[in-house]
Amino acid sequence: MKGIILKYQGHIRNWKSLCDELEIDKTIRRERREYEIIEKGYEKWGNSIAEHLYGMFAFCLLTDNGLFALRDHFGTVPFYYYVTDDKRLLFGNTIHEIMEESGFVKELNEKMLQIYLTLTYVGGEDTFFKGVKKLMPGHWLEYKNDGELKIERYWKPDFKPDTTRSLEDWADEIHDTLQTIMPEVLDDNETAESFLSGGVDSSYVLAMSKAKRADSCGYDDERFDESPLAEKTAELLGVEFSRSVITPEMYFEAVPYVMYNMEQPLADASAIVFALGCKATAEHTKICYSGEGSDEFFGGYNMYRNAERYGDNLKNFYVGNTNIMKEEEKQRILKNYDPDVLPINLVKYIYEETEGLDPLTKMSDVDIQLWLEGDIYLNVNKMSTAVGLEIRMPLTDRRIFDIASRMPSEYKVNDVTNKVAFRTAAAKVLPEEIAFRKKLGFIVPIRIWLADDRYNADVRAKFQSESAAKFFNVDEIQAIFDDYIGGNSDNWRKIWTIYTFLVWYDIYFNNRLPQKLKRTV
User: Fold this and answer.
1) Torsion of Cα atoms, 285 then 388 then 496 then 244, to 10°
2) I need a surface site. Which of 54, 63, 247, 499 has the fewest CB within 10 A?
3) CA–CA separation, 521 vs 510, rounded Å?
4) What's the CATH fold of domain 167-323+362-435?
């Protein structure tokens, strides 16, 4: 079966061995080389081609029978599709590509708002645009010439704990595997910089790379600024350090830019900082490393330490590490609440797949299949692509996940720390004070900025707007805002989630886009 590439975005890591196997000239430019790998790989392996690829990718091929599309195992690169009234398949790595095609009808999928208000991102295969769907991670799609659509799952996370090995055994395997992967992530003729926070993930990636410069973001308020820790790590590793200072003015001004380029609303407050960091980094490099993936694989989030306490009750409430609004509150604030649209329905199949496994594994699997695709990888892809920066994530790799899938939970989280084995591996190239530094997360002072009248004018205006009145009981959401201003700082996430949706909605359905971002939406 032959195929011709119609759409492709990604980076294939094991290209050298694939070129040997598929008889492809290794000296041709990368884009052509990867096109040939996919086209010849599909001719040889058909729908099982993904079994032979390591890296980040989503593509669509024109075949004798119609179209064949595939998204990588973890969903690092997005892929969307839409069936028109006259049975044509529109598709692309962006929703904008679909919107520009004849036959696309722009309609709001309002039910997604209920999912969004809990998750703070668009989870599952549906989107905020009615009829536009995501091809989910580990899935391929066939659209035949006769109009038949077939979607099949070719891979899923599979956990089989091996209790025969020691902590050092696991740490050695992580380190040895990353040593194998790192040379694949960058071609010999390429140079890259590396994002660097104060955490172990980015520090480990930097230490294992050949990057000569590290890029970080910080704030004037030292309570939230991790960049001094990052600078110390860069100095220790002998690399140049670059710091972008994010002011509240910059942050709020960037919100429409982020919501436009994200194509769907995203209430992850760190996404704005990440977007600004990508802009600054793109001024001096085209490729940058980033450390996403290890938290979900190896038990990095602090809430994972509660896994045993949650026990079997997880399946009744755990939909991921963001859970902002309960159903009772959504029912109170929404004008069109549907009791059948529940976030927990998105993860029922995951709990069925992990039946009999320990609670930490169940939590991790939910985050791997839902949160990584819907928030983390979407943010990385959209914000880097918007500025022409290519981000490569060495820790997001099937070979790394394979280790995590066999590792007992006791080597991921214990009473003292998280990511135990991963940190032990990182300590082979980092001082213990860095490798075992307590996880802080990607801190953003938005909890404070939102309460400041110098910065929150647009938030206040959006909460009282016609758009807000269309979806929300305005008095109810205003009460949440007033409660926050009155001192309940925990409400900031709810406010930010409502606000980002309203910004996005006004851009895409009321054409309220800042002049410098103007285009047809």
Assistant:
1) 20
2) 247
3) 9
4) Rossmann fold (3.40.50)
